[in-house]
Amino acid sequence: MSAAIAIHGVHKRYRSVHALRGLDLTIERGEFFGLLGPNGAGKSTLINIIAGLARADSGSVSVLGHDVVSDYRQARRRLGVVPQELVFDPFFSVREILRIQAGYFGLGRANDDWIEELLAALMLADRADSNMRALSGGMKRRVLIAQALVHKPEVVVLDEPTAGVDVELRHSLWEFVQRLHRAGHTIVLTTHYLEEAESLCDRIAIIDHGNLIALDSKAALLQRGMGQRCSVTVMLAHPLAELPSALSAQLKTQEGPRLQFTLDREHGSIVELLDALRAAGAEILDLQTEQADLEDIFVELTRRDRHESARTVHTVS
Amino acid sequence: MNPHGLYTLFHKEVLRFYKVALQTLLAPMVTALLYLLVFSHVLEDHVQVYGGVSYTAFLIPGLVMMSVLQNAFANSSSSLIQSKVSGNVVFMLLSPLSYLEIYLAFVFAAVVRGVVVGLGVALVATLFVEVPVHSVAALLAFAILGSAVLGSMGIIAGIWAEKFDQLAGFQNFVILPLTFLSGVFYSIHSLPAHWQKVSHFNPFFYMIDGFRWGFFGVSDVDPLFSLAVAVAALGGLAVVTLAMLSHGYKLRH
Ligand SMILES: Nc1ncnc2c1ncn2[C@@H]1O[C@H](COP(=O)(O)OP(=O)(O)OP(=O)(O)O)[C@@H](O)[C@H]1O
Ligand SMILES: [Mg+2]
């Protein structure tokens, strides 16, 4: 069975910018996939190529086995895209917009029930006859989502759907997208809210400078690198006169009685750390441990990517 | 084919101008009638046209066709530039509509706008002067072909222009001269020989001349030849427009 989205060797240049540098990525059916990366990484460019809004210089992309260039009609019927920009047509009302969009896909009045369902699910029913101009930003965002779903696409790509959206709406959008996912849709999401990706996505790709720098399940990504380390903060009754030399390598910060250690799971456990402290005569009042989250990994990986690309630039010059 | 999709885009384009009819239908009619009042009064006794046809009667078909052409152009070009600048052109581009379907929808809508404005101008103008009708078929054929030609040019201009002032430039430096130098206000036989020759390279001249023949049965050139020129112009422009659309020129980056 063909993948939901298959991307092979995609390059894209905009004059001086090499926006995508030979990207390979396969998103399977039914996945909840997160596409992460700093500003300008190439996420929207990739989405535009998938959607046919931009053309790759080389490489190929297919949606459910349909090439997005040579078989664009079939590919686009299976794909719903929520663009990053809040674009709208000021001539029409919400319901008119949705009917027009459905019409482009060849769907007539028989699709009206689905449109009403979408309006209700996205809490737009009472604004259905308002002109697009009269809607708030959050409402326009929801219309964009409804527009992307109007033809019941199997694969849904959302480019920062929660940017500029208040907390309450963000949570209801998460629920809505999760419901779509449970109903069998493949979801691809980009976001700059890493806790959003962490709580929603099964698998995550991180791109930077047009390169894929990480691609793994969320769990494996969290395990990786930083995930193996944890940070331990110990509060002592009195500052230690002298830190046992065995612990100095793991010490990160020290502020009087407050010591922070970074532990590498392979070399040393929390128990050993505490034993060593007690042996040195410390009286432990409190203990905090912290796992790395996606944000740490993201920062770590994109920083490493910066260093590496800085180095390549250096060797070239 | 996706006939319902084509119809939807066409219908949307028609609704778009219908919703602002004051500006898109009424205003051009008023403009054309102002031209008619001013020019017919000033020039009635000074300009010689065909024998037996008064200048005002001669002017009416020219003004009607000018309104048809300008409004057909305005419809597709302004719709495209607006949706490009505001970004909502993506909704059409995300759909499975083919290049041909997009082209046809825009051209059909341009024809509707052109013909409706032309009809309005004609009806009101004939309240002032009586104009004979020689061939309704010729009138329809030239009005439809002419607005399709200008609708296609509007698509080209709307795709090419990135800003409103570029579109205005196209309108002022291409469309306006071609219209004014096509014999809207005069018979080209009243021009010096040199300018007569130049006029024969202007496809708008044939569209207006053929249209005028539909009223009077008299024309500067053979109406069948004019028809052939209009068809050829439409064919050539269709090829260019479809090529631009299929390459995604300035639409799919
Ligand atoms: N139409 C365009 N013309 C020129 N350059 C472009 C165009 N679109 C994107 N770029 C460039 O390509 C690079 C990638 O941009 P892209 O929009 O894909 O980033 P992104 O990952 O979506 O960023 P963000 O998180 O800010 O949305 C950027 O350097 C951008 O300036
Ligand atoms: Mg983006």
Q: Could you characterize the architecture of this molecule?
A:
The complex is a heterodimer of chains A (317) and B (253). Chain A is an alpha/beta fold. Chain A has two domains: 27-44 and 73-222, 3-Layer(aba) Sandwich (Rossmann fold), CATH 3.40.50.300; 228-291, Alpha-Beta Plaits (2-Layer Sandwich), CATH 3.30.70. Helices cover 35% and strands 28% of the residues of chain A. In chain A, the strands form three sheets. A six-stranded mixed β-sheet of chain A has the order 6-7-8-3-9-10, with helices on both faces. Chain A is elongated, with a radius of gyration of 25 Å. Mean pLDDT of chain A is 89; it is low at 313-317. The two termini of chain B are 25 Å apart. The interface between A and B is medium-sized, with 31 and 29 residues. The site of adenosine-5'-triphosphate has 12 residues of chain A, from strand 2 and helix 1.
Keywords:
heterodimer, A: 317 residues, alpha/beta, Rossmann fold, Alpha-Beta Plaits, 2 domains, six-stranded mixed β-sheet, four-stranded antiparallel β-sheet, 10 helices, 14 strands, 35% helix, B: 253 residues, mainly alpha, binds adenosine-5'-triphosphate, binds magnesium ion
Name the helix and strand elements of chain A from N-terminus to C-terminus, one letter apiece. Answer: EEEHEEHEHHHEHEHEEHEEEHEH
Biggest β-sheet of chain A, characterized? 6 strands, mixed
| CATH class descriptor of the largest domain in chain A | Alpha Beta
Most extensive interface between two protein chains, with residue counts: A-B, 31 and 29 residues
CATH topology group of the largest domain in chain A:
Rossmann fold
